[in-house]
Write a structure and sequence with these properties.
The complex is a heterodimer. By secondary structure, chain A is α/β, with parallel strands linked by helices. Chain A has helices at residues 17-28, 58-70, 80-95, 97-106, 124-132, 134-140, 175-182, 206-222, 233-241, 243-249, 261-268, 285-290; strands spanning 2-6, 32-36, 74-77, 120-123, 149-152, 186-187, 227-230, 258-260. In chain A, helix 1 (17-28) runs parallel beside helix 11 (261-268) and helix 5 crosses helix 6. Classes of the chains: A alpha/beta, B mainly alpha.
Chain lengths: 295, 135
């Protein structure tokens, strides 16, 4: 068993627990054991952009300290928002000596001072590509007999800014499509795959998010998607939770179930446990049964 | 939109504050509009993101601060990655929000959020929202 340090993030422990559970179960098949960072805290998303606000960088910095102390050379992060925040905080610590020193000095009760190069922060998909290998995954997968058309919705956090992008073409990424295609899934292109879902505007400007969701889901549907795949618990919520009101209010709106990438991968590998389908607003089970992925 | 420009207005403290907080060269923007073209929140905005920066360039910071635009930003970084001059507009928007938040009150009142929303919304939405919209 290979042990890897793991940062689930707060949301993957609650509303996003399908993502957490299925990621663990899927990686177990490849001999990867995920060890949660001891005493990890919320990553404090989103990455603070003000030039003088070091307090806001403490949350990701502390997690990087825990990662450095774990002894693991890699930190696996499935949540796109944690990934983005941790990577950018790490880059700040690595490149800005003055801020690095201030942060380390402030965290004087921590046992370890960090320089930002102790651990490689990796998103789940990058780990699957580089450390597991798409061919190795393909060997463990049974493609759905009836085929399945999925639209991969990347959102923002995996692709922007360029320094942290999981694909070398952030305006037209294909890494997740290549993974799914290796598993016998047909992926469809749609022009909204890297457009922001509205993110945290869902709290106080819900109309904006509902409008974005409508565009994204309609576009995916029109391009033939039967399923939308995502890797971010906020994108997942925004795209999933608002479809019911959209199908009541908007003409010709067709619901499309949304799933985390690990949920689909686990099912393709024959692992049925790990997903609690009551956490989905748009139930993917009818589609999954039709495709022979679920009994 | 009436705009008064003068040496005094251009030398204003507020503009310097925005420059400092964002660590950006505000004058590098040549108003190509790529940021506005890519902005996902544009449909709800009163002035375009590129217009917000234009106002700041011309020393009209109070007008920029009064817009709905700076609060509709989702920090998606699309503007930043597409700017041909390398201007990080996301940082400028954050700077403008910080000027308001540090001067006056929170934009969002966490204790006024309905209980049912607090239960339904994923934590990540609330955390990110409060990070951006409260002191």
């Amino acid at each position: 068993m290979t042990d890897i340090a793991y940062m689930p993030g707060c949301t993957l422990k609650t509303s996003g627990r399908n993502f957490d559970e299925t990621t663990r179960k899927f990686l177990e098949l490849f001999g990867v054991k995920l060890n949660e960072l001891p005493d990890w805290c919320c990553c404090g998303t989103t990455y603070s952009l003000a030039s003088d606000n070091l307090m806001y960088h403490l949350a990701p910095a502390r997690n990087l300290v825990k990662a450095a102390e774990s002894g693991s050379s890699k930190l696996l992060v499935p949540c796109a928002m944690c990934y983005n925040t941790l990577r950018r905080a790490q880059d700040l610590i690595l490149n800005d000596k003055e801020k690095r020193d201030k942060l380390n000095d402030f965290m004087d009760k921590e046992k370890t001072k960090i320089s930002g190069d102790e651990v490689r922060v990796m998103h789940l998909v990058s780990f699957l590509k580089e450390d597991v290998g798409f061919d190795t995954i393909k060997a463990k997968i049974t493609p759905p007999p009836a085929g399945l058309k999925a639209a991969v919705y990347y959102g923002c956090m995996l692709l922007r800014p360029n320094e942290i992008a999981i694909d070398k073409h952030p305006e037209d990424p294909s890494i997740m499509e290549k993974l799914l295609e290796a598993c016998g899934i047909e992926t469809v292109y749609f022009p909204f795959k890297t457009e922001c879902c509205g993110s945290y505007q869902v709290v106080n400007e819900k109309r904006l998010v509902v409008s974005r969701t409508a565009e994204i889901v309609k576009s995916a549907f029109r391009n033939g998607a039967e399923l939308i795949i995502t890797s971010c618990p906020l994108c997942y919520f925004n795209l999933d939770a608002h479809q019911e009101e959209l199908s009541r209010g908007v003409k010709y709106f067709n619901t499309v179930p949304v799933m985390y990438i690990s949920q689909l991968l686990a099912l393709l590998a024959g692992v049925v446990e790990g997903s609690n389908y009551s956490l989905h607003a748009v139930d993917p089970r009818p589609l999954l049964r039709k495709k022979g992925l679920l009994a | 939109m009436k705009i008064n420009v003068s040496r005094e207005i251009l030398a204003g403290e507020l503009r310097d504050k925005v420059k400092e907080l964002s660590a950006q060269n505000l004058l590098a923007c040549y108003q190509c509009g790529k940021c506005s073209a890519g902005c996902p929140s544009i449909e709800a905005m009163d002035i375009m993101p590129s217009q917000v920066l234009r106002l700041v360039q011309l020393g009209q910071v109070r007008q920029a601060l009064a817009s709905k635009t700076i609060w509709l930003c989702a920090a998606c970084q699309t503007c930043k990655v597409r700017c041909p001059k390398g201007v990080d507009l996301a940082k400028i928007m954050e700077a403008l929000r910080q000027v308001v938040l540090r001067e006056s009150a929170n934009y969002v009142q966490p204790n006024e959020i309905p209980g049912e929303n607090l239960e339904k919304l994923p934590q990540v939405a609330l955390i990110a929202n409060f990070r951006k919209f409260t002191r």
